[in-house]
Amino acid sequence: MSSPVSLIREPLITGNKTYHQITEDLISPTEKTPPRSWIFGFMVAVFFLAVFVFCVGWTIYHGIGTWNLNRTIGWGWDITNFVWWVGIGHAGTLISAILLIFRQKWRTGVNRAAEAMTIFAVICAGQFPIIHMGRVWLAIFIFPYPNTRGPLWPNFNSPLMWDVFAISTYFTVSLLFWYTGLVPDFATVRDRAKGFRKKVYNYLSFGWTGSAKHWQRFESLSLVLAGLSTPLVLSVHTIVSFDFATSVIPGWHTTIFPPYFVAGAIFSGFAMVLTLMLVTRKLFKLEDYITIEHIESMNKVILLTGTIVGVAYLTELFIAWYSGYVYEQFAFFNRALGPYWWSYFGMMFCNVVSPQLFWKKSWRRNIWLTFFLSILINIGMWFERFVIIATTLARDYLPSSWSYYSPSWVEIGIFLGSLGLFFTCYLIFSRVAPVVAVAEVKAILKSSGNQYKGQSQHHDDHHEEVHHDHH
Amino acid sequence: MRKEVKNIWIGEQDLAHSEKFIEQSNQELSLIDTLADSETSSALGSNRRDFLKFLGFGLGAATIAAGCDIPVKKALPYVTKPDAIVPGIANYYASTFVHGGDCAAILVKTREGRPIKIESNDMAPSNYGKTSARAQASVISLYDTNRFATPLKKSGNGFTSITWADLDKEVKAKLASAQNIRLLTGSMPSPTAQKAISDFTSKYPSAKTVAIDAVSYSAVLDAHAANFGKRALPTYKFNEADVVVSFNADFLGTWISPEKFAADYIQKRVIKDVNAPKMSRHYQIESHMSLSGSNADNRILVKPSEQGAAIAYLFNQITAGGAPSLPLNERAKKALDKVATQLKNNGSKSIVLSASTNVAEQLMVNAINQALGNYGATILAGTNYYGKQGDDKQFDQLVAELNAGSVDVLIVYGANPVFTHSKGKELEAAIAKAKTKIALSIANDETTKLCDYVATIPHFLEAWGDVKISDECTSLIQPTISPLFDSRQGEMSLLTWSDVVTPSYYDYLKANWQATAFAAQSEFASFQAFWDNSLHNGLIKNSVSAGNPAYNNAAIDFSSITSPSKAELEISFFEPLGIGNGIHSTNPWLQEMPNPIDRTVWGNYLAVPVQFNGVSAFEGLNGVKDGDLVEVTIGDVKYTVPVIQQFGQMAGTVALALGYGRMEAGACGTNVGVNVNACVERPGGYPKYYSDKVAVSGKIGKEKEFSCVQYHHTYGVKDKDKATGQTINADEAATVFFDYFTGAKGFQGAITDRSIIYTSNVADLKENLKEVQEKRAHAQFLNSKQIYGGHDALYNTGHHWGMHIDLNACIGCGACAVACMSENNVPVVGKREVSRHHEMTWLRIDRYYYGSVENPNTVYQPMMCQHCDNAPCENVCPVNATNHSSEGLNQMTYNRCIGTRYCANNCPYKVRRFNWLDYTTADLFPANQIKKFGEETPYGADNLTRMVLNPDVTVRSRGVIEKCSFCVQRLQEGKLTAKNEGRTLRDADVKSACQTACPTGAITFGDMNGKDVLAGKLENPLNYIVLEEVNVRSSVNYTMKINNRDESLEA
């Protein structure tokens, strides 16, 4: 974070913050009794988590027949939710890794929450491939482990097998990255804590003392993990897209899927980050750390990726027409005009049309519009996955087998429940760890704090300056 | 041999070059040879290879036993093993399927003493050994939980058990004091049963027999009685007919003996030489699409009330005439003119038949056949068929007698007129007036319920008996299992009550055969040899006299011909192919077998005519859509029924199936659909299976469980586009649900450009065939350019199993689908599950309409796992649960399946089936096995019904995928047999269940390398592969569907 910052750039930290104020602002939420709004939100989230547990239990106990999938449409909301959550899980790593490498300082305001979101989203995503199995108690079969059946190995040709590796690797690396960033912040929490809390945070911070050696190792590890994560941002959704791209079903079997899925994933990830940050920022009064500048930056990413996704949709249509292959042509015709036209329309409107509003600067900087569109994009991206999965399967090769699908209460319950799981995790996280990376924000204070802007064009921001403040 | 190597040594002995050591080390290597040595192995009783085999078998058996999630509950060994039973080996017994007037010579496959499968009996002459779906399904009715377990006596509203001795005592007392005894039976084609009845009537001279069929054949029987002096049906030889004209007779589906007719008919339908293609022409004159109509080349649409007028019109064209000219729609008249010309041109090579229940109309049909010279050529009036004998007039007399209170004892045997007869309600009241009512029944039904005594009878698979199917063939019924319940044959009850002394009905039957059939033959000298041979074959062939009886020119009462109604709407009532007129309602396989025409299950759906709106939608009568509920008013009765838009249903007519809405048919049949038998009027004593006093409301709701297994019915049906006036594929236009107000049109070619179905008129077969072959060549060219090499070399050696399905031979009867359920333990899932498209059928028959919207042609396509050699399902399974055998079989390993359903998604043919719920109670969680969604135990999951399971096929548990295995268990059995006989397996040894069930031989399973049975089939130029361009390399060949539609009829 030692690069010089142009004067033209807006400050990333406002309110003339000192290091101590930063600590106070960001650490204190972990120390106070939670506000009413948090308690209310947590109750709602836990309720939906309970719905999730109940519906999953119901599914496992009674069978997948409690869902409305059928002989034609073998995947519906389950895999739609899986891909949707995995997609959401992309923003965190992108912000942590790729923006770190590109030295985008604005990432420091949002990276912690985004990474946390990634982890929780991947946890939510990971539920679906497991619970969608007809015999979940034999889920262990998907792991390549030595066994007495021959040994019998999983089928390494299967994209579902690749998913197992892709998702688990992604989860592991994201978790490590997130936790690594948390270590110095946990130490800050510890330093302010007393008694049992101090002990717990001491454990969590691995006895961090803030010595130069610690900082040096911390920096190296961050860089190594950033290096590891960067290809993962691209690979995970690429592999998820292989679930469809390697099939023979018209509408799935397309080479455009990997880049299209990755763009869509970043798109939906940023939308979810915005949804969360706009609320977090308000509730935790973090307006000085997550500024309009941050929001605008993210809106730019959304505009870019949304447009890429739009181009991908149009390319698909063009290629379907150009292929001269009736199955492909009909698959896309059916998506747009068939019985599920409303989901295609929803997808196009939410994902392609709505982000175009962000061409206008004042709209990019409008919080309410941003919040509204971020929700819209999340809905649109869910529709995209639904369109790809259910609409395609509903009318494939043999007209005799065409069918229609709408979810049962169990499927709806599992989806809403997965939101409950996500928000329960997120709300707990917001109470036990600083939602903004304290150490990293401090690191950019001298270059991007409002009171320092214009003071010196070539000042150095030294890590040594980041102290753990004592009262 | 051990070589000496310097500087390398093992131990000091080696270093010392000890002789003994060297010898020992050599011996160690030769130990393997020693074990394989025959001398040693004979001393041991087995050799090393055997040991490995035993080990492998043991391991395999243990894996199967341990791996399946099925708790084994009871296993008892035989104390003394019966001679005929070898565990694991099936025994086949020849017998006869006879139920409700359907008869067929069959083989019964039993395993460990349990009948589990019905097969056709190829020894039967004239295709009387072909099986229908009903025959295939009859085995599960043996294990019906609804069956009576003991003889019963009325007690209050129900029955209580009674001993046979008490029952006989009480019944005999009643009979002895009776002045007037009536015996009400179904058609009784059994000579020995007739003898028993005559013994009964000689003991009780007041006894009279009345026979009734569930669907009336009285008029056609009476007409033949008038023309030929004998009240019996003739033999129709469809294999001799070049022109078939059927007035509403569904001879391929339900009329008289459909599976025999189908087998005969198809001989004139299959294209033998594509360069000089020839096939018969079939006209069907009807309003509702029947199975025969769907197979016809031309359907001539007439309203149900116009049937008589249409027959009269043809009668006037063919014969000297004299029938009055009745109003008939102009199109039908024009068409019938051409039909008449065709008939005249074909002379005695035609058949005209009618299902009319009007004697005058049947007499006209006979006169037409006589005028054409068909008698003696295509219709043998002297060779009778005895399956249908019911007499409606006698029945009316019986009802009158009952009403008068003059019947003392009524014995009901094999009939359920309270349900099947339109006077059921009246009969219900009338029966109460008889002093004593005795039912000879297997299970409760609407008539039995009213009786005082039930002399419980066994299922035909537990009984002895005989059936004179036709003059050509008399068939034996032999038991294949000891009676499951305390039952006694109906004939034996009659004999007991008549004081005829016989140790058993078996002895009575044998004695009768000795006196009649044995006496009439000269081949066998001893009766025992004759009997053993007859029992082994299951039948005897009778010699038939070649001559045709003289045709009496009976006077036709032209005034009684039905005059066409002026009503705007008419409804026809038809017998559904599966459950008949309620007589198979208790059979879950038949309830779940989709009706071949509308593809619905578990209920009757009102077939309404459908129109294309010229833009993007099909509209049913009054704007109703598939699955909407409407109120139908027939006479004064209102019914709420779901509708199905029926292509080919004549405008101004609707149709509803009989046989549904039974109220006493066990768990499976009770309250399924609505009963419209009461709507059948009886002018002149004959039932009229239509009504013109009908009104259909608009949509009043939505059927909650709309159970139709096929939502898209068509393959490019043509109609006019409203905007342009051009003829377009209306169904492709109708794929648009929302056009965003752009006026976007449907995508023309979206369905018809697919390589699923190819059709052609026989007249332009050459051009169409060329087109198909070019398309195939292009697909094959593209496939050859792919980077994936495949494993063709592997599959080109050894066996490579494949199938050939001749769509020209397939009539869509569904026998194969039921046979598949029976063979492969496919669970029945019930109405709710089917409505959610959770049906489990491994083999389905896709039905597509093509041609015009108003009057389309039909193609049936049996669809099952195609066993692709480049199978898309295999590579996506994460756990290798589905994979390919070296013989080209796509295999499912249920134990390994974790149920991701990825394979099912990736199957282009959508033939994979997932066990959504615990349909078989094979689940891990016993608590989960009952009361799921309000259901009791799933159908077929109780201990009695489970006796029908094929022990060679795993019962699948919840959460796994299953699909057609090409009957791999039969392949394994064939291999074992071949091995025991010390030869290689010939593919003719193995026939798949669908193949043996098919009455028309449309399905041929065999080895694509060995080409024993597939020889000639695979080279058929009409062949194509469904979705060939997807390059999944399917192993199933279909043939192009050829019709002989008379295009001039439309002009």
Order of helices and strands of chain A: HHHHHHHHHHHHHHHH
Number of continuous helical runs of chain B: 30
What does the main sheet of chain A amount to? none
User: In oligomeric terms, what are we looking at?
Assistant: heterodimer
The helix-and-strand class of chain B reads alpha/beta
Radius of gyration of chain A: 23 Å
Give the biggest sheet of chain B: 7 strands, mixed
- Strand-residue fraction of chain A? under 5%
* Count of distinct strands of chain B: 42
Rg of chain B: 31 Å
Mean residue pLDDT of chain B? 88
The residue fraction in helices of chain B comes out at 25-40%
Global morphology of chain A: globular
Largest binding interface between chains: A-B, 62 and 69 residues
Mean pLDDT across all amino acids of chain A: 88
What proportion of the residues of chain A is helical, as a percent range? 55-70%
Number of strand segments of chain A: 0
Number of helices of chain A: 16
